[in-house]
Amino acid sequence: MAFPVDHMTAPNGGANNWPLVKFYFEVQIDNVDGTVGFQAVEGLESEVSVMEYRAGNYAGWYKTKRPGLMTYSNITLKKGMFRNDANLHDWWSSIANDHRHADRRTIIINMYNEDNEVVVTWTCEQCFVTKFTPSSLDAEADSEVAIEELEVATEKVTMVYG
Q1: Fewer CB near the terminus (10 Å): N or C of the chain?
Q2: Residues near 61 by beta carbon (within 8 Å), at least 6 away in sequence
Q3: In terms of Cα–Cα distance, which of 128, 73, 76 is closest to 100?
Q4: DSSP assignment of the chain, as one string?
Q5: Domain 19-161 class?
């Protein structure tokens, strides 16, 4: 792709010709008031398995391939630990103490552009916590903040642009 001489002014107003920034996003979790200020969201991946098949009476000496089931990776959410903010730990505790995984929630992740407009939304359905990691402690880390991580499994992710 060739850029114009003035690369700060992209063609067509820059709407579709300039990559989105990845640091401007918000996360909403069912049963948690408002949005949660996460530092990072990782694992928004999906994959289609491949089924290989060859009919017994097929003359070719190769298998045909067909799309199989869709799977979604676990999602890792990272955020700073705050005093009296136990929402993520409470969700973890509800799953850890009830192995039926009844406390499933929807997580919505909105990505914004520089004009504060939602440009991509991921909706993760039927999520439950698989791992909770409170911050590591280090007496020599005098300027680092405490970061907690939550890993969730999801059954379905939809991604919508605009």
Answers
A1: N
A2: none
A3: 128
A4: -PPPSSTTS-GGGGTTTSPPPSS-EEEEETTSSSEE-EEEEE---EEEEEEEE--TT--SSS-EEEEEEEEE--EEEEEE--TT--HHHHHHHHHHH-TT----EEEEEEEE-TTS-EEEEEEEEEEEEEEEEPPP--TT-TTPPPEEEEEEE-SEEEEEE-
A5: mainly beta
Residue 51 — pLDDT band, cuts 50, 70, 90?
very high
Does the pLDDT value for residue 13 go beyond 90? no
Q: Domain locations in the chain?
A: 19-161
HSE on the CB side for 27, CA within 13 Å? 22
The token pair at 87 is: 């929402």
- Does the pTM of the predicted model rise above 0.90? no
Per-residue confidence band for 69, with pLDDT thresholds at 50, 70 and 90: very high
pLDDT per residue as tens digits for the range 86-118: 888 888 888 888 777 778 999 999 999 989 999
